[in-house]
Design goal:
alpha/beta, five-stranded parallel β-sheet, 5 strands, globular
């Protein structure tokens, strides 16, 4: 059976590929267009150092294209971004290859049991695999592994996936903007264009204003975790 690895451009999914990849497997990165520039650098470094081909896919127009089509912003209750930019984009690609049944490798670690438990099987033909969880591999082990490599992801884990994803929560977004204020622009533009906000009762522009007032300057981004789990980390 065909094996498909979900590659997010982060340390965990990269480790999963390195540990379990076999020649002929498909390693797929669905690019939202809202990743941090150093995520793209890490992906390029991974491909160059490891000689493992990465299939790079993108929804037409990326995140911007999706917002323009939906005329709304996704939120915690309507996460159409994950569905369209990641799940369906990958699924459409595999269908073009006439791959309808496959093993789907997901990078959930041993320290993320709830993510494994909550994972919903979307299609009967797709068999989800959680090798890191099954082999009891946790975040500490993965970080130790990357510290020994000649290259690494050069940003805190909280900056993985879409830079200001609403699933990270208000406090995380404020903290990120305290260190990376330049990341706010496209997210503010989305909200002004659609008239909707990513988070309930507060806009990204307002969160940036809080960040600009230095209220979160002493927060260590390396110690932050998203407020909510998202499948985009796979």
């Amino acid at each position: 059976m065909v094996r498909v690895f979900n590659f997010s451009g982060g340390r965990t999914s990269a480790y999963m590929v390195l540990k379990y990849y076999k020649a002929g497997d498909l390693v797929i990165f669905c690019d939202t267009g809202r990743e941090h520039p150093k995520t793209y650098k890490f992906i390029n470094d991974f491909e160059a150092f490891e000689n493992i081909p990465i299939i790079r896919l993108q929804y037409e127009g990326g995140f911007d294209g999706l917002i323009a089509k939906k005329k709304a912003t996704p939120n915690h209750f309507k996460r159409f971004c994950t569905v369209e930019l990641k799940i369906k984009t990958c699924r459409r690609y595999l269908r073009k290859l006439k791959i309808l049944k496959y093993e789907n490798y997901v990078g959930f670690r041993y320290d993320e049991p709830l993510r494994v438990k909550r994972r919903k099987q979307m299609w009967k033909q797709v068999i989800d695999k959680f090798p890191l969880y099954d082999d009891k591999i946790d975040k500490q082990m993965i970080n130790a592994y990357w510290e020994q490599k000649p290259y690494n992801l050069e940003i805190p884990s909280i900056l993985g996936n879409c830079t200001l994803c609403f699933m990270k929560g208000k406090n995380a977004i404020i903290s990120i903007l305290s260190s990376y204020p330049e990341l706010a622009e496209p997210w503010i533009k989305d909200e002004e264009l659609t008239g909707y906000t990513y988070l309930k009762d507060v806009s990204i522009k307002q969160l940036k204003s809080i960040a600009d007032n230095n209220l979160f300057k002493n927060i260590n981004l390396n110690e932050m975790a998203p407020a909510f789990d998202c499948a985009c980390t796979t």
